[in-house]
Specification:
The protein is α/β, with parallel strands linked by helices. The chain is built from 18 helices and 35 strands.
Length: 771
Amino acid sequence: MICKTALLLLVFAATTSMASMNRQTYIVHMDKTKIAASHHSLGNSKEWYEAVIDSITDLSAEEEESDSESTSPQLIHVYESAISGFAAKLSSKELESLKKIDGFLSATPDEMFTLQTTRSPQFLGLEYGKGLWNASNLNSDVIIGLVDSGIWPEHVSFQDENMPPVPSRWKGACEEGTNFTKSNCNKKIIGARYFFKGYEATIGKFSKITDYKSARDSVGHGTHTASTAAGNLVDNASMFGLANGTAGGMGYTSRLAIYKVCWNDGAAAGSDIIAGIDQAISDGVDVLSLSLGSFISKPYNLDEIAISTFQAVKKGIFVSCAGGNSGPSSSSVTNTAPWIMTVAASYLDRKFATTVELGDGQTFQGSSLYVGNETKQLPLVYGETAGGNKNTIFCAEGSLNRERVKGKIVVCDSALIFSRFEQGEQVKLAGGAGMLLLNDEKQGEERALVAQPLPDSSLGFSESKAIKEYLKSTTNPTASITFKGTEYGKPAPMMAAFSSRGPNAVGPDLIKPDVTAPGVNILAAWPGLTGPSSFKSDERRVLFNIASGTSMSCPHVSGIAALLKSVHNDWSPAAIKSALMTTAYVHDDKCGEIADVASSNYTAATPFAFGSGHVDPEKASDPGLIYDITPEDYLNYLCSLKYSASDIAKFAGKDFTCPQNLTMQPGDLNYPSFAVNFKRSIDNNTVTFTRTVTHVGIPNVTYEVRGTEPDGVSITVEPEILKFENPGQKLSYKITFTQRNGTVPRKTSFGYIKWSYLDKYHVRSPVAVTW
């Protein structure tokens, strides 16, 4: 990524001619259940919306517009499917009248942007018609398998218009089930299966009322990840008008194969996951995307996902997994097998801004997905003044006193044990007029958002401390919330506080996660009958939803891997992984170090947060050098871990035994990064590893090595120059890490080495030294 000043994006209200002085286009969201109950005599929703428009006509606006083409409110679009509502051109008086209609949810000004996704492809450097998104590079025969919660097949993101026939090599099937027939598959969704027997064996039979016993998605998670990986380009995508732009998957011409293993409570049985992976391998997918994992890391020989995905890699399938959402705790990263691309989550350069003003004049910048009007200065209540229950500070169910809360803004402490949407719902049920959601020290400056049912603002730890001090300073605290909508230009990427961290508890000789990718407040497709919060009580409907997690960053990398597979169909999974890692960048778009929002002062993140750095798809397509790894190399690595023959057999089958005189140490695996472990009890630690690189760039090049040494450690590379004559040539080097005399051991220090050819190729590998 080239370090440069970010361009400002201009946002315009959607208005036309002289009427722009009086009427503006709004996207209006309506509660469909209330419409049906109140206006059942009308034939369809369009007729009812037309009746609403007629009833709110602003005659004064008509008089002012008598010389223009538009002399009455104009119904522009009616949304019959996922979104309940319409788009219309309204005057300010008409908008106020509309808000009084039973069933009104929200109205946001229509916005037009320069062509961008919401917003990942542009941030990642992908541009329509160029580079990896050039028509000649967009191979539509790459198949991405998603092991997730299913898919909403009718969504516009999954239409198959102008797609070529399904690849003849495809062996998958479209399994029928509840509200899902073979016709729900097409040339985009070329396969759909579901696996539930393990779930039912553990949890018991579930009702078809609570979930679809089919590949249809009732949770939303699978639809969101599928469209992030390979959804079609869809113009004017937004959620309630926020994040407006062109939504599209990273590998938007790729095919999708769906393997539903997660059910309505978000749970999945390990046996079902493995069955899904097993079937995906047999069906012939090229990329496997798994936005799921365990809370606890297990040794690879006990990790069924590690074992089953190894079989996928043996077949040439690239595997991408979410690294987990248990950050910023140390050693919380999961899915850490070396053949898995473990993905962390970071921020885009986009925010959904609010301003919170306290009664004493202090103002704070927060974030929110709410799109209604700003609040007035209202009384502010917290803890005892909101209810007195021990859980009142969390706004937990039953903890708020309606008499104390009604018409006021309620302050709630954020906590992992309570859903943020549930907290907002409880405030609304108790009659609250708004909510301030405050982070604790561990959450830092996190701004991962959910669409709340009332005016709200999420605030970081530093702002939260100041607000609590204000609450102590006065007996009559007040606050107001102003909503600024979508803004661009903040420093990015920044590491999400929730993103799980290294060091790797299972394999300390590997830095994990491997890379980071966009995973915070990502807009992507959503099921037509699921509210944006996924809670049954949420009756709102959206076509696209904003969600956060390493579940969102993982399919970004899956889609990018599909693009690289299109361009380099002879590359192994390890080669693709190496290209993504060695070309990743570690600075933000303002030329500063990637920050960690887990700290209130935004200190620099480390490779234990972002691995090799933030993915750069275009650079990964021409990396210069790759660190390739064969299945046998991985097996020898497992042998170096002293696994038993029976453990090795889980991965290799019966045709492999560990070499009797194996000299390989775990750190000798040909990995694109270096994790060095020194002993505190030794004063002169030293370790040497071997690496082999394959040249995949232009012929006749000479690479030189340089880098930055970790504190207290010297690095020696032999040789320091590598000369390649032809693509495909392999050369090896040794790298030695030595503790400097007199060095006082610290927990971990970081550095890097980089092989460079002029300014064309820079092949970077992070170094982490841990005592």
